[in-house]
Amino acid sequence: MLIDAAVLGPPQVWEASGHLGNFSDPLVDCTNCKNRFRLDKLDDPDTCPECGEKNSFTEAREFNLMFKTFIGPGGTQPGYIRPETAQGMFVNFQRLLRHYRDRLPFGAVQIGKSYRNEISPRQGVIRLREFSQAEAEIFINPRNKTHPRFIEVADLVMTLYSKEGQERGETEEMTVGEAVEKGIMAHETLAYYVARTYQFLIEAGLSYDRLRFRQHKDDEMAHYAVDCWDAEALLDRFGWIEIVGVADRTDYDLKSHMAQSQANLTVYLPFDEPRKQEKLVVKPDMKKLGPLFRKGAKAVADALCTLPLEDLKRDPIVVEVDGENVEIDPALVSFEMVDEEIRGEEIVPHVIEPSFGIDRILYSVLEHSYREEMVEGETRAVLALKNRVVPIQVAVLPLMDRVELIAPAEEIAQILRSLDLRVEYDSSGSIGRRYRRNDEVGTPYSVTVDYETLEEGTVTIRDRDSMSQIRVKKDEVAEKVTALLKGEMEFSEAGSPLQS
RNA sequence: GCGCCGAUAGUGUAGUGGUUAUCACUAUGCGUUGCCAACGCAUAAACUCGGGUUCGAAUCCCGGUCGGCGCACCA
Fold first, then answer.
1. How confident is the model at residue A309, as a pLDDT?
2. Do domains A8-23+65-252 and A274-343 have the same CATH topology?
3. Is the Cβ–Cβ distance between A204 and A190 less than 8 Å?
4. Residues 466-485 of A with CB under 7 A from strand B
5. Sign of the CA dihedral A305, A306, A312, A316?
6. Residue A16 to residue A31: CA distance in whole angstroms
């Protein structure tokens, strides 16, 4: 389920997420050598480790990566702009749980802008103060991390850069099934989402040989996490950069929100078989304890309930209340062992978190799709986007800008548009220029209307990647183009080759 | 956040206090053109933003924003 939660949040949310604590560092500058340090990392908070100067530090300044603002009039209630979208899923956990009818697993995704006051937001689109994320939280049963649809991805081969692989500096090609079997990936569910991420990135247009999954080493992974894999894309300017992270964050986030908000963020999981358990039930006689102990009665009763069986059998019964031993007449307490049926338990789900950096993915898709090639001594620029992601699906071009060609071309364009295709009609300049222009923006197919269209009712379709052309009946263009766009038909089989 | 450098049409650029702000490509229009950036003519299009100095600022000064490099920070 896709949700759209608040961008602005009160401090409690970011307290629970750890962003207020961990994203905030006290920084000090040495007035002598101008170096900057984190106060909490200094051995001696009064001495500069660089130049040895004493008491040369400026006042510690809190530097937090979150943008702070104030909610409401008066300026007294602080608020923070989200540094990640993920918290929205935790904050709305109870709603989601109810939506999914109290059963595991379930998940939610969110797409939106996040904001970090980066100290050094360089490298263009790679590090921004305002960026787009798509994050999911998949809540699962910690006792069972298998995945029912794992078999669908088990044979998928991916390039993995495991912890061990990084020691050796080697990546390995491996199926997802093998990675789980060998214990390289922690469990099926994590592996399943890594695999789905891989499929998504390939479908979006990343190049096989410039994409890998790198496992976090133990020292870079958050202490509570079980396993974490980053999809990394190889880029000319930046080298390997992280574009997606998939982590098993265990129950850390939910527990942290529970502690902060006192809300019950657990799921009741019934056992397969109800379990029988003997339980000691203690019933203090409050009618008599009340008058006897007055205000202390409640504390006495509570203390009695925690006593083990053998202590209850004494006469008198001795309980400790507020550090004092109190004697109780056994007649004032009854107790018995009962067989209790336990049908299930409250558990805090674990969470698998795939987190996508949309800006970085978009940049990677563009770079991996772009190529230049020499054609008859000229450079041809091609944006070989996947059909799924092209902005223009088909261009309709009259061979020349003449009325007798324009009319049928416009008619074809209209038919294609009526099928909800994204169509570009262009009659300007030479046909060659128009082909190249469409190559540059990634248009996969160009339909050209020429004089044979008038004579024989056929048009040509040109393929962006191969520049080859086929001739098809005018009446079949819509059907053929649609099939080609869906990948249901090979280009060479869609029509007869053009003799030029 | 510090230091150094930079920012001129869509792109790449010329321009050292007074220019109608240069040139090419691109784009648009017309003509031409029988399938891969052809050609001709015309047109459109810019001084990063805010202050200041000056009779006059793209040009000099200060500040902001954005970008590059180094340091620091982050992951």
1. 76
2. no
3. no
4. 467-469
5. negative
6. 35
Give me the helix-helix angle, A358-369 and A188-204, nearest 10°. 50
Structure tokens at A255: 């527990």
Whether A446 contacts A395, CB under 8 Å:
yes
Q: Which of A70, A59, A65 is nearest to A30 (CA)?
A: A59
CATH topology assigned to domain A8-23+65-252: BirA Bifunctional Protein; domain 2 (3.30.930)
In this predicted structure, what is the pLDDT of residue A475?
95
Rounded, the Å distance between the CA of A67 and C1' of B58 is 36
Structure tokens at A196: 């789905």
ipTM of the complex: 0.87
- CATH number for the domain running over A274-343: 3.30.720
Amino acid sitting at position A384: A
> Does residue A309 sit in helix, strand or coil?
helix
Place of tokens 């339980």: A279
Q: Residue A443 CA to B46 C1' — how many Å? A: 30
Q: Is the CB of A50 under 7 A from strand B?
A: no
Look at residues A37, A132, A112, A193 and name the one whose alpha carbon lies nearest to residue A362. Answer: A132
* pLDDT of the residue at A369: 95
Backbone φ/ψ region at A216: left (φ over 0), alpha (ψ -120 to 50), beta: beta
Delimit the domains of chain A by residue range. 8-23+65-252, 274-343, 376-497
Q: Is the CB of A35 under 7 A from strand B?
A: yes
CATH architecture of A376-497: 3-Layer(aba) Sandwich (3.40)
DSSP state of A82: -
> Nearest nucleotide to A65 by CA–C1' distance?
B74
Mean pLDDT per 10-residue run, chain A (500 residues)? 89 87 63 58 61 62 76 79 92 93 93 84 80 94 95 97 92 96 96 97 96 91 89 90 94 92 90 79 72 73 76 78 76 74 88 94 94 90 96 96 94 96 95 96 96 95 96 96 96 84
Separation of CA A125 and C1' B20 in angstroms? 40
Contact A6, A112 (CB under 8 A): no
What dihedral do alpha carbons A360, A361, A363, A369 form, nearest 10°? 160
pLDDT (0 to 100) of residue A478: 97
